[in-house]
Specification:
The chain has about 475 residues and is of the alpha/beta class. The chain contains 15 helices and 18 strands. The chain folds into 3 domains: about 10-160, 5'-nuclease (Rossmann fold, 3-Layer(aba) Sandwich), CATH 3.40.50; about 175-245, no CATH class; about 255-474, P-loop containing nucleotide triphosphate hydrolases (Rossmann fold, 3-Layer(aba) Sandwich), CATH 3.40.50.
């Protein structure tokens, strides 16, 4: 029996896809109550088999429910289950849920329109929600689903429906930091009194204090065009709120090219600084198609792996989600199966093999040899449980990963490993992921301010004038 008028607490009916997306959703509604229709439990049971991320999430939901049902009196199950937060015991500070979880124990007959047949799972959930709305008229009954069409149908039959927002990193993707910032023209004049500069190991350092430095964070790239070009990175923020800047390498100059690649705009120069910095362990690069994310990353990886011997090998992986129709199973080993998905790798290696116009035969031969010896293509499906030491890891198309998948991958990094995530959050192909819930958005936001992490958003397309124009108008 669902208690009415619980001090304005809402009753949330959860769709199956919410639990498949986030198994901890049971603990995210705090003082509000949760209702699980029996068809949801049936769908969870049907989706528990396999090694996919969704199947793992379903099995975790089942374990959570089993813990809640421990020592429950069958005669009082209609009064709801206390939501014991096991997450807090595991170090996840989510607060203490005070609501109750109700399982469907009897048939609920609602006024479902005859145009919606009740034998479909979504329509059964709609019918149950309509029945609950009539039964507990003094409480808000809200259907929570990641399925847009189900939310549309719920609104059409007079129900309140919402998306699941707890995994949303930001309210608006425009709030995501870019990793670089332009300085005002009068920057030097306004900080003349507090400015301190010195030289150390061929680099220039500046200690600055002022109101406009309050929003700065480590590894934020700063640039100034007038009166004289200047670019630097925020190296650290001291306890007395003074900021230490360090001048960075201008990779737009040919003498600073990386594996024959020269930056074509300031953002690409910032990206190369982050990729080549030995003190930066994690780099994320955002940008639309043609901004040079993969090319710059591979150039930096080859230089540090072959020339500087900083890493033993390069590992590249990506999510295998097709843009069009699936072409079916692929024969061969793990690397052979991943090869069709690595067209970007092959295309960019062809460019890197021809970067040096003079005497480039050795460079081309070495680059081609890397395809079989030093660059390894791996599938995400076999990353769990592994530890990579002294590797340069590139995760392409990272916008299609969830926050949990991203955590699983990044925690594979062992000593001496550098990890780079590339992606375009405007091109998400994974169902139920948006720009604000993507795992790439999640890590860009969470790594902000970490001294060993850097992020750069690339804005200018450098692939070709055709590609740049198509990205703007199509």
């Amino acid at each position: 029996m669902i208690v009415q008028n619980r001090q304005n607490r809402c009753l949330f009916v959860l769709d199956t896809n919410v639990l498949m997306h986030d198994p901890t959703a049971l603990y995210r509604f705090m003082e509000h109550d949760i209702y699980l229709p029996m068809i949801v439990l049936e769908e969870l049971d049907a989706g528990k088999k396999g090694q996919s991320e969704t199947a793992r999430n379903v099995r975790q939901v089942s374990r959570f429910l089993d813990e809640m049902l421990t020592d429950v009196d069958i005669d009082t199950i209609d009064e709801g289950l206390a939501i014991h937060s096991v997450l807090k015991e595991r170090g996840e500070h989510t607060g203490t849920p005070t609501g109750r979880l109700y399982l469907q124990t009897r048939e609920e007959k609602g006024g479902l329109p005859i145009t919606l047949p009740g034998n479909q799972a979504d329509n059964q959930i709609l019918g149950i929600t309509l029945a609950l709305k009539e039964k507990v008229a003094d409480r808000k009954v809200i259907l929570v689903s990641k399925d847009i069409n189900l939310r549309i149908k719920a609104t059409a039959v007079g129900l309140r429906a919402e998306d699941y927002h707890n995994d949303q990193v930001l309210d608006d993707v425009s709030l995501l930091h870019t990793g670089h910032e332009a300085l005002p023209p009068a920057f030097w004049e306004s900080h003349a009194d507090s400015l301190e500069s010195w030289q150390e190991e061929g680099r220039s350092f500046y200690r600055i204090k002022g109101a406009d430095t309050e929003e700065w964070y480590p590894n934020l790239y700063l640039h100034l065009q007038d009166p004289a070009p200047f670019s630097a990175v925020v190296r650290r923020i001291d306890a007395d709120e003074t900021t230490v800047l360090e001048s960075i390498t201008n990779y737009q100059q040919n003498r600073h090219s990386v594996w024959g690649v020269t930056a074509r705009n300031p953002e690409q120069s910032f990206a190369l600084n982050a990729l080549m910095d030995p003190d930066v362990d994690f780099v994320s690069l955002l940008g639309q198609a043609g901004t040079g994310k993969t090319l710059l990353t591979l150039a930096a990886a080859l230089t540090q792996t072959l020339d500087q011997k900083a890493f033993s090998e390069i590992i590249m992986t990506r999510v295998t989600i097709p843009v069009g129709e699936d072409i079916g199973f692929l024969p061969g080993t793990e690397e052979e199966k991943m090869t069709p998905w690595m067209g970007a790798l092959m295309d960019n290696l062809e460019v890197l093999a021809d970067t040096d116009g003079g005497g480039g035969s050795w460079e081309r031969a070495a680059t081609n040899d890397l395809l079989q010896s030093r660059i390894k293509v791996r599938s995400l499906n076999f990353m769990r449980g592994r530890t990579f030491q002294n590797k340069f890891i590139i995760i392409d198309e990272a916008q299609n990963l969830t926050a949990k998948q991203m955590k699983t991958l990044i925690t594979r990094a062992g000593p001496g490993t550098k990890m780079v995530c590339l992606g375009n959050i405007a091109q998400i192909d994974t169902p139920y992921l948006t720009e604000t819930t993507s795992g790439l958005t999640f890590v860009v936001d969470r790594f902000r301010g970490w001294p060993h992490g850097a992020h750069v958003t690339l804005t200018r397309g450098e692939r070709s004038r055709l590609a740049e124009f198509a990205a703007e108008v199509l």
